[in-house]
Amino acid sequence: MLGLSDQVCNRYENAVSRLTVSRLLHICEVLQISPVEILYPVVPHLWGEAESEAEVRKSIIDKLELFDGPTLTAILGFLQHLQIKQWRTAMIRARRKPRPDHRRGATK
């Protein structure tokens, strides 16, 4: 199925050899699973600093995989809109912060 000899499989299982990214992706294609399904249980911290954050991100990824192309395009557009809105809000807040008075002899 994977085109690997028993010896090679044993080397991977016993951590004698390291699995390459291309081999991992090939395995995912053959098994018809996402690389996230293999990686998340092993290294969940890659999805968030806290366990709850990692679980939320993983849940979002799982749900996104269910949508078709046009829906994903719409979701991406919405996320980009939110990101721009968040950036603009941050810029407005930065402008409203009082600036220190650096003039010579200025007192509070």
Quick gist of this model?
The protein has a domain at about 70-95. It is about 65% helix and about 0% strand. The chain contains five helices and no strands.
Report on the architecture of this protein.
The protein is mostly helical. It has a domain at 68-97. It is built from five helices and no strands. Residues 10-38 form the HTH cro/C1-type domain. Keywords: Plasmid. This is Helix-turn-helix domain-containing protein.
Sequence of secondary-structure elements: HHHHH
What is the CA-based Rg, rounded?
24 Å
Q: What fraction strand?
A: under 5%
Question: Which stretches are low in confidence, meaning pLDDT under 50 for 5 or more residues running?
Answer: none
For the secondary structure, the number of strands is 0
Largest sheet: none
Mean pLDDT, all residues: 87
End-to-end distance? 76 Å
Number of helices, counting only DSSP H or I runs of 4 residues or more: 5
Query: Helix amount, in percent?
Result: 55-70%
Shape summary = elongated
Alpha-beta classification: mainly alpha
Which features would summarize this protein structure in a list?
Cro/C1-type_HTH; plasmid; 108 residues; mainly alpha; Lambda_DNA-bd_dom_sf; 64% helix; Helix-turn-helix domain-containing protein
